[in-house]
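Board notes (copied after class):
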Amino acid sequence: MTNQQLEDLITRVMQRQASITEQMQLRELLSDLKDEELNQALDQAWKLYEPYESPFSEQDSDVMRHQLMSAIRPPASISKIKTLWYRMGIAGSVLLALGAGYYMLRTKADHANTLMMAAKINPVRKGVSLKLSNGQVLQLANGNFSARHTTDGAALRQQPGHISYIQAQPEKAEWHTLTNNSAGKYELTLNDGTEVYLDIASSITYPTTFAGKDRQVVITGQTYFKVKHNKQSPFRVKAGNQTIEDIGTEFNINAYQDGAGVTTTLVEGAVQVQSTLDGDVVTLKPGQLAQATGKELEVKPADLEAATAWLQGKLVFHRQSLESILKNVARIYDVQIVWQDDDLKNIECGGSLSRTKTLANIFSFISEIAPVDFILNGKTVIVLKSKK
């Protein structure tokens, strides 16, 4: 990095115009104050910045100065940091100008503070919605048993965490869309008796009653099916660029858009999976999965425990990338993941943890099995290489 690039970076940070990635980049540079180019760039950027007033009180500035001196370098270099600190003319240096970016230069106190804040973040609970054929959207309360008639003629039985259709009108099938916006699973029993379980950020679009010889639904996100088999009326699921057809079956479909494409995992029975891109068809046996590799479907051995753990409120992963694990965490806790170093994404981990605990439990567990640490800023989780 050239001297001018350093000055530009520091200036953007001081003026609160830097991205989180740029703030993390400066944090790494600040950890090596032996670099004379860095010292010169700091001096020049400070001269250009010339703040009118400190964004922190003198007392707060002094506390942060001591924390920063302990965090950045060992005691032997504290005098150099102290000299730089006061040479800049304000007892907060770059950090004072950063304001909200202070957390980037983390200390043990920052880590404790992150866990304290994360202990207040529970799995997201935004409810379940049902969109009717006329466009009306109902919010389904997780209350006691009740029966209700919708404005488009369907009759529902509603129980905690579950709805079912109790009135069949073959001559007037309407299409509904059920969406789960909460971290706990939600169950739907279709008019034919098929049981469907929705994970968080998942939806299913289906007719209120099945008429004719074809039963078809459309899903997004992750869904588990226990299909009521009927040879005379095939049951098909459309998910992304695939169609999955039941042959007497229990199966899981993961079709999150931020994943590795649609993955169908067969638990019992048999299914046919067809690519709508090139017509490629595969038949799965129990314990196998089908996943798109480009336009082709690839059949692999499945990890049934990991694929279905969400039904028991768990995250189970065996040699799974940290990136994949934290994508699930982001959905469950409604947070955004930012990486200090993209190489951290490829770390493989194994373990099992509850999806019902606070985010602090997730941080603590993952920090024990992977060389990473976390900093929480509002709803943004920054993944850092551990200093342990």
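Comment from the instructor: Residues 49-57, 63-107 have pLDDT under 50 and may be disordered. The first strand starts at residue 125 and ends at 131.
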